[in-house]
Amino acid sequence: MNSRGNLRTPIILWVVISILLAALYYFLAPVLAQAGAIPPLASDVADNAYQIMAIFTYLSIPVFVGVVVFAAYSLFTFRSRGRPTDIGPQIYGNTRLLGWWLAASFVLITVLYVIGFNGLAQLEAAAPASALHVRVTAQQWIFNYTYTDYNISSSTLYLVENQPVEFTVTSLDVHHSFWIPEMGVKADAVPGELNTFVATPNKLGHYTVRCMELCGVLHSDMNTNVVVETSSQFGTWISQQMSVRPASLFAAVQLPEAALLDASGKRS
Amino acid sequence: MSWTRKLVPSYFSGAVLAAIGFIVGSQYVWRVIGGVNWDLNDPGASGNFLEQGFLAGFVLMTLGWLIGIGAFKYPFTWMLGLKDPDHNEELRLAGKDAGIIRYFRFTTDHKVVGIQYLVVTMIMLAFGGLGAMLIRTELMFPGAWAFPKETYNTIVTMHGMLMILTIISFFVGPFGNFVIPIMIGARDMAFPRLNALSIAFLIIAMAVYAFIPFMGIGDPLTTGAGVQTGWTVYGTLADQTGIGVDALALAVILAGVSSQMGAVNLITTVIAMRAPGMSYTRMPMTVWGSIGASILSALGTASLTVDLVMIVMDRVFRTSFFFAATAGDFANNGYIGGGSAWLTQNLFWFFGHPEVYLLVLPAFGFVMDVTSVFARKPLFGYKTAILGLMGVVVLSFLVWMHHEFVSGFLPELRGFYMASTELISVPTGLIFLVLLGTMWRGRIWMTVTMGFVFAFTWSFLIGGITGIYLSDVPADVQLHGGMFVTAHFHYTIVGGALMGFLGAVYYWFPKMTGRMMDEKIGWISFWGIQIGFNGTFLAMFYVGLQGMPRRVADYSPLFAGGNLVASISAFVLGASVILYFYNVIYSWKAGPIAEANPWGAKTLEWTTPTPVPLENFGEIPVVTSGPYNYAEPATPSGVPARGVEAGPAIG
């Protein structure tokens, strides 16, 4: 005969292990983040995303531990040596437990909805009037940035600390995806379509742009730099650019993209 | 001569006609239409002739194969009113007294088709796994050190698509065909010829697929051979990649048709061929899971077929389904424009997301079944389990746009798709409730199959929880397209579907081959697979969080540590899978002879003798209770107290 097993042991294990894991995560997460487990965060959008992930981690610890503890407890307690000679209790279900299980599922889902829709509202907030407008044009295998407020183009992205920026992303050839890991900015670059994303960089520094959608042979090399600088540094850079690049030359460079925008006629 | 009668028609004559068909089709386009002086290296018009020749070759190859294996024989004899096959002829077509050759020809017996599927899908799995090993070799160190980048991209594409095709068919193919008709008390599938045709389509699809890495070698117009798009084959990139994309499109369309034929057949069989007393609420969960998968397969696959047809049209006939109206395009590329690049994403993912549930649903059903068998307890909530499976089926068609949260397509719908995606965790959670409840206070017999059930529980739990992170729009924006996603879906597909498959092979091996699989090798390979699998993909979660994109041949030294761990673990996984395959081959030849019901299960397939006779049952059983009644006394043959009546003849 098997040992009977009881409900108390796995429930205690469940609670204790969950609390231990949550505590471990609480103390270890900053250390790991410091050690490079996640990119250094540099915008409001990234802060938002990682805050949500942290909440999700706390929510999923009891779910994960619960299933693992009950499965492992069953395995060790109700295991029969070799082929069983008798049968288990013929239980065909438990409506009350099912009810509680469903109730708990829907409570968890509701929490997810609250977090998710709240985060989505922040993500979709319209760009304020003070926003810097940057048109990101992807093509194999570079990103090109146009500052529509100043009629300037650049292959390196310069942004201003604490100034919201509205990216408008498109592509000239195949699907690309514009990602700044440290800033949590990601928008697919879809040929013939415009895709907008608003974020506010909040830390000075040098960051990277990566292409996130397989776009051909050199996809893995499609990385460029982002520089977040103070508004006076940025102002200097802008005036430099405007002086070295006359307006007529600029217009010629912009022709293909201008044609693209006129003809698509959508979402501009 | 007797051997010609044996070999014609068979897969051998089919292969000969397929080769002739390919040569005739391709050479006709290249030599006759293209002209004697047509030059491959002439960049003017060569690209299209090259592609059209291959396409014509593939089409005639498929036709030649189907003619060569005799698939058209009966439709034509019926159409021409020559002769109706009588019962004896039907039995001969089902492989009666044919010996080993019945596995190498168009045979209608569902058990033969099941074995054919098992062998074909395991070969596909081996090649897909080889692709995975090559990918991990390249990613072992930063800096594209093993292959050129274009080769790496082709390997990624071929690994992804081949694994998807494998996993679509590796449960409902071998077990859906071999086991499910017996499980529901039928003598065969509802459409035996359609069944034989579906495996024939899969085989020729794989023959076409094998062309991919060789197509485009030396083609001056494209960068390297093969297909460099990833398995998503977005139309924009597919247009400029190597001509291997034509082979990929045709192979996937053929395999899709194959899986649709199998799906329709399985659904009809379950609806129409159940034994007396086998009500819907007495069917084992494996049947329910496979039905769910078949519904998804029948409804979802068409979208991918449409996508691939459009891609081939864009490439070969210069249509512009996926190309927007950009002014420069006509001058630069010869397109008229007016299409949409979002269309290719939508068509792909409308197939793509139901498809991932199609992969795991049969495994859901299977693990619930065997948990009941090895715990000697009925399912903890039969209707709860059905609710879980069917809830997943319905919801899986309402979530595909979570793959496009960052695409810019209808961003105002993101809230809805986030909500529907998170809702899917409710029916999935019910499956876990059933599993845990069935284990509770059971008599758990730790066979290797049961080990895979625990592995399934562990892996799918991790896969499901990480899926919650990806369903949330703000978190997904950060994680989308990175290694975190790759690790997540490998935890659901490998950890769900593949663990289920490996357990199912071990479980039904005695019934399918008449021999037991070796338990010791089984456990060694089991632990190797678990260590390798978890090591690989936990490390991949880590580099994903660090910010490593998917499908890159080269990466920043920042990610080197995690990738090295992932690669070494992946080689452990690969070696363990090889050991598992060795176990299958070795046990098939020399394993101990199995008794009729080695696991003490109550489902109908274990009431038949081993090997299962041609029409399965002497008399069709009458079912009087559910599949998990362990309290019922068993008769000496293993059949619970059930009445019998004379069954109808086949055909």
Describe this structure in words.
The complex is a heterodimer of chains A (268) and B (651). Chain A has 268 residues and is of the alpha+beta class. Chain A has helices at 8-34, 44-77, 95-123, 231-244, 247-264, and strands spanning 79-80, 132-139, 142-147, 152-154, 157-160, 165-171, 176-180, 185-189, 195-199, 205-211, 223-229. In chain A, the strands form 2 sheets. A 5-stranded mixed sheet of chain A has the order 4-3-2-6-9. In chain A, strands 5-11-10-7-8 form a 5-stranded mixed sheet. Chain A is elongated and about 90 Å long. Chain B has 651 residues and is mostly helical. Chain B contains 23 helices and 1 strand. At the A-B interface, α2, β1, α3, β8 and α5 of A face α7, α15, α16, α17 and α18 of B. β1 (79-80) of chain A pairs parallel with β1 (444-445) of chain B.
Relevant terms:
heterodimer, A: 268 residues, alpha+beta, Immunoglobulin-like, 5-stranded mixed β-sheet, 5 helices, B: 651 residues, mainly alpha, Cytochrome C Oxidase, Chain A, 2 domains, 23 helices, globular
